Give the backbone structure.
Amino acid sequence: MQTDWSDERLMLAYRAGDADAFTLLYRRHRGALYRYLARQCGNPALADELHQDVWCKVISARSEYEPLARFPTWLFRIARHRLIDHYRQHARHLLAHYQATAEEEGEEGEELIERLPAASEETPHVLHERHDTARRISLALAELPPLQREVFLLAEEGGLTLDEIAVATGCGRETTKSRLRYALGKLRRTLQDLL
Amino acid sequence: MSEMQQDFHGDPQVSALYREHAHDEPSAAVDERILAAARAAVSAPAAAAGRTWWQRWRTTLALGTTLVLTLTLSLLHERQAGDVRRDAEVAPPRPLAPGGSPAALSRDGAAPAAAPPADTGDAAAAAGTTPSAVAPRPQAREERFGGQRAAPPAGESGQRPAAGEPSRQSSGAAVDRAAPAAAVPSPAVAKASDAVPAVAPLAPAAAIAGQEAGATGQAAARAKETPALRGEGARSAGDWLEEIRALRREGRAAEAAKQLADFRRAHPDYALPDDFRH
């Protein structure tokens, strides 16, 4: 059955014209991708729009799809590029964080990550949370620097490995590992009473 | 986080806490739009491909069909013309029986009078054989063309360019040679006798001779001048020559020479084979 198929096989089936394969693929990844986008942009409505854009890019790019990497890696890379496009158009101050990615490669990488500004508590996604614990988790995530938050979300929501995150974000593996370590450390400190 | 490499195990507690409370999902409307777009993207190319195929090939198919029809019609027309030409060239001569029926003979006399000057067809084909009819088999063509050729083959003159060329160059006495054609029996006469071998070389030259003879109208007069030779014309020229050859082979040279002389009188415009030209 198609339910047992891998993501890559489903995508190839969809490329061949099987719409049901896409439905399965979409149901597998819709939540994770949406949460990645929602927590990154902090706006559920905007997340809806970005989420739709990303999947439309997947649809339009199906004919060129080749299973050179795991499907989530490909999917979240598209999502990341869409986020950067959004920042380029509407939030250039956040884009600066992503553009600094290349410069972080080197000795000053981790120091630069430390200097990244924390997300504002007033971001819309904080207001979106209802549950107290969920609200606190969201708040803790919002407080993370964007690049640390991105690595954490790619690991948690996308299930990407360090290498895959490094490829998706265009960073080195060690940089990715450092970002993830910092993110987890901050979250642990913030959510210590919930653990 | 569970797929982190061995050198980095992450923080299972933080991961578990996050996953426990991470339940945000896109709205149903967004889901519906995305899935609809995915289905449309898959189904649209198929329809577009069908249109594209037809649009891409319909001109080629139309041209190909037109070409095939044109070639078919051309070949049919060519074959039809070739058959007519071949019938005229290969048509067997049909000498009158020595005791030809009066009705047939009367038709012989009537044919030239009724035939127009341009009658260069089958009547002319017998020009080289005096009264003896060297005419194509009209019934064969009538069978082939389904009775479309009920009229005498007057119109065939224009379809025999190959037969006409050598004859025009051969001699300036074509009018004289064509004289017997006026007395040549019509195709109806040819029908009267069967089982006569063909004399193929006769037909082309005779046809052209007939073309010119029809224009002059001297054929009837010439036919009257050689009534005595009608009996010799009872057999075909080819048969006669074969008989002469047989006489030669038997060593009866004198008799063969006499027969040849008679033959020359009976068929003055007949192009003798090489073995008789010495």
